TrEMBL record:
Record-given protein name: Cell division protein GTP binding protein
Positions of the Septin-type G domain: 56-333
Gene Ontology terms, MF aspect: GTP binding
Biased composition (Polar residues): 8-23
Region forming the signal peptide: none
Lineage summary: Eukaryota, Fungi, Dikarya, Ascomycota, Pezizomycotina
Cross-referenced PROSITE patterns: G_SEPTIN
GO biological process: cell division
Presence of the UniProt keyword Nucleotide-binding in the record: yes
Keywords recorded for this protein, A-Z: Cell cycle, Cell division, GTP-binding, Nucleotide-binding
Taxonomic source organism: Metarhizium album (strain ARSEF 1941)
Length: 363
């Protein structure tokens, strides 16, 4: 038998002669010449158990942006690893240049009454579908902030505004629209995690952050904090906050109003890993399931604030208020922005094509 006690595979020579398919088919071969067919044993990693907080989290769309090579994809993976509430994340596939890449994750199962196609038999199917289908309620968007032309339109800004363009056609009062957006019923971006270098924001960063903050929440982050000492991180935070305040940016901070938490208004994060001195067992270090710990930064606090019931609800509500304000500005200006207008036109053409196809098949 194989070395794994749970394996059910065996070589042909190790089976009893009454069960071996080679018995009686020819001369008995020496053991050294007998085919040794051993099926490998695979250990399937178990999915994380659902947490109470994860089950209570609603839908949340997080756009991660910043200059090329600053660690956007690494941050998304680090958030999924650190958060105990994320039980699954889809594979990240490389997107075309200057294009946004949506990556879905899940913190909760889809309710059984949403997975049951036969609404007349809910009780019979409820037990078989409970917790069996994941609800991909978290969406991470990996998007560059600059295109080939830095002075041109920003892919991140275009993405955020295009998700709000179709709201202009909804004939709803502001309170109803706010309730719709706060509930996560629309694909608008709830928060932008804007990665900045330790040197602080440039004039182009300020311009893009100003455009983004008009449509959604913007959370500034200092990337590559592992390259700085504790004193350097503190100085970088203070200098970045002074730059943001001097530019008049209205960034989103998880600190409640009135709290004296200037050092917590901005997170210095890193997705770099380090060697765990407490783990010296080679079998653990070589295991495919072993994940080395991250360098100690503010990343844990960011994940805790971001994927909490209060934090995610706060982000959705704040993003809804900004979306309504953005729509008012567009109405006051007498039209939509070019990127939003293009998205609306594509949606209208798609709807027109659907109606034409429907008429052809029904006539």
């Amino acid at each position: 038998m194989s070395e794994d006690p749970h394996s059910l595979s065996a070589s042909l020579s190790e089976l009893p002669q009454s069960c071996s398919p080679v018995t009686g088919t020819g001369p008995i071969l020496p053991r050294a010449l007998t085919p040794q067919l051993v099926m490998p044993s695979l250990t399937v990693p178990q999915r994380r158990p659902f947490s109470e907080t994860g089950r209570s989290l609603g839908k949340l769309k997080v756009l991660v942006t910043g200059r090329r090579g600053i660690g956007k994809t690494s941050l998304i993976l680090a958030i999924a690893q650190l958060s105990a509430h994320i039980v699954h994340m889809d594979t990240i596939v490389a997107a075309p240049k200057n294009m946004a890449n949506d990556v879905y994750a899940s913190t909760r199962p889809k309710p059984w009454w949403r997975t049951d196609p036969d609404r007349d038999l809910p009780r019979r199917r409820r037990s078989s579908t409970l917790d069996g289908v994941l609800d991909r309620n978290i969406c991470f968007v990996d998007c560059p902030v600059y295109g080939d032309d830095i002075q041109g339109s920003s892919p991140a800004v275009d993405y955020v505004e295009s998700r709000l363009a179709h709201l202009a056609n909804k004939l709803m009062d502001d309170p109803d629209l706010c309730a719709l957006l706060s509930g996560g019923a629309e694909p608008n971006v709830d928060v932008v995690l804007y990665l900045l270098p330790p040197s602080g924001p440039t004039s182009d960063d300020i311009r893009c952050m100003r455009d983004l903050q008009d449509a959604t929440n913007v959370v500034p982050l200092l990337a590559r904090a592992d390259e700085l000492s504790t004193e350097e991180r503190l100085l970088a935070k203070k200098q970045t906050l002074r730059d943001l305040d001097a530019a008049g940016l209205d960034c989103f901070f998880f600190a409640a109003p009135g709290e004296d938490r200037d050092h917590s208004r901005i997170h210095a994060i890193s997705s770099a890993t380090q060697v765990d001195p407490d783990v010296i067992d080679a079998s653990i270090l070589m295991s495919s399931e072993y994940l080395p710990p991250f360098v100690a930064t503010d990343l844990g606090n960011l994940v805790k604030d971001l994927l909490s019931v209060e934090g995610s609800t706060w982000l959705r509500h704040s993003a809804a208020c900004k979306a309504i304000k953005w729509m008012r500005q567009q109405r006051h200006q007498g039209g939509l922005l070019p990127s939003a207008l293009a998205c609306t036109r594509r949606s209208s053409l798609f709807g027109l094509a659907q109606s034409i196809i429907f008429q052809v098949f029904t006539d």
